[in-house]
What we know:
The protein is about 40% helix and about 20% strand.
Amino acid sequence: MRQIFYQDTELAFAKCGGIWYNINMEKDIFTIKRNTLSYGRGYVYSLQYHLVWCTKYRKQVLKNGIDAECKKMLYGLAEEYKFKILAMEVMPDHIHLLLDCKPQFFISDMIKIMKGNLARQLFLSHPELKQELWGGHLWNPSYCAVTVSDRSRDQVVAYIEGQKEKGKKKVGNFMQIVSSYGVEIKKKNIPLRSTLDIFRKAVSYLIPVYAETWEELSEIRNPQKRFNEAEHLVHETKKNHARFPFDRHFPKMPSYLRRAAIQHALGAVSSYQTRLGLWEKGELKGKPKLVCENHAMPVFYRDVMYKEAEPGEDVAHLKLFDGREWKWFQVKLLHTDMEYLRKKWSRKKASAPTLERKHHKYFLRFSYTEEVSLSKTDVKEQVICSVDLGINTDAVCNIMRADGTILGRKFINFSSDKDHLYHVLGRIRRFQREHSSRQVQSRWDYAKRLNMELSRKIAAEITKYAAEYQADVIVFEYLEMQGKISGNKKQKLHLWRKRDIQKLCEHQAHRKGIRVSRVSARNTSRLACDGSGAVVRNQENHSLCTFRTGKQYNCDLSASYNIGARYFIRELLKPLPETERSSLEAKVPAVKRRTSCVYADLRKLYVEVNNLKAA
């Protein structure tokens, strides 16, 4: 291939394979900015590389001033070898560089020069690095080199310069929390049902297709490549001949909706194959069945299936199937739901909404992602909110420190809501006696909705109380929910309410940066918090109990003290060496078993831990 280079103040051309490039051309394949070009003797070039290499074993040794020395050394090497450093950041375990170098340099030789010089100078000035790396090399032998175009250069510079800030955000425990909210659709004369039906028919068509071809699909380990292959099986294009006539059965289906159906069908078949494998190993009872009928709900992707209205309007635009073709329809949304979203979530970016059908109504469910950092406070400095979910009282909370100091306590009880719920259960029992159990499903669903609403109220009160005292952790009892739940309807509702309260409280607490922990529930109510032994329940008032010392106390409050004490006992003993732990267990024998330790044992243990450290 012949190349001809011209150097001129106005024009720089390169004829390569019959194509001419001009730095001043506006309507061409690409345009090169003049200020990014470098000039040599007889040539013009613009060659940028984004380089990344890591320390050996990803050891975080480039810190405490060593990172600044690395930068100084790299700038010195750049001046010596005549290349430019456009952007640089030295992280504790890796280095990012954006270089501009001459075409004569081999990039592999450049990296060898930089890594070799840095290692030699750092080992001379910091001999302790050898010990941290077990006497080995400073750098991992591999590296990453990516060419950077004129258009992506600013993005790469911003990415490199933002590395330190990115590291700061992830100090502590960093997590993403997804919250969702359903907005009711008010306008009924729109083809929501036909859209839902055709989407579910598409999923039902695809499930047996992927079950038939699962043997070849399962060999593809990469999820994205597996999805692409699954789409090629059913979607016809100019370059791809589909094996199955999906497009003939579902003509003009929007591409994003088709991909959502493919994703759902792949998930259903993958789940079936996993359960089948467990059954064949004898780990699952009952042979699983591949069910093609489904309750899949379509996702309305932005711009192609869903468009927002003007700010302040309670409408949205959805692309729906009217029985013949796909059209845009204006959908009216409930004003109170939209006001809530505007008030609480206006600054958060919502994901694509999902259609939802519940209680004979349609909703658009929006999901929001938040990034929360849970800072890890030392156990001796922690303040916790321990919660006992009782029968007589909805919840009893107390605020506790590691030494057993009680900062506050609260009884949460929504008596009117429970009376309403029990009244509904009484009507269900009377209706069953007069008719049959098959005809009470709607009434039973209503009772479960009331129970769920009660759970939301209790969870909100627990989280609010913990946030008032700036608690680091909310501690619950561990609930055993495996297998079929036995008991009458009232007992089942009570156990479901406990489970829902913990789930809701965990989500709300994480949003506020509060951790959630669980301890063994065994004997928390049966044993007295003062360490006197088993309690005797009051037959007339079940919320009260009598200790062996003769003292009368609230049973749920005593249990909440024991729950908090078990958390602190576990956290205080966990990091200690085996010898120290054995010594403490000998002095406070009750802490050996998690199912028998109580609040009084925490007070004793805390004193012994301090004595051990003082000695």
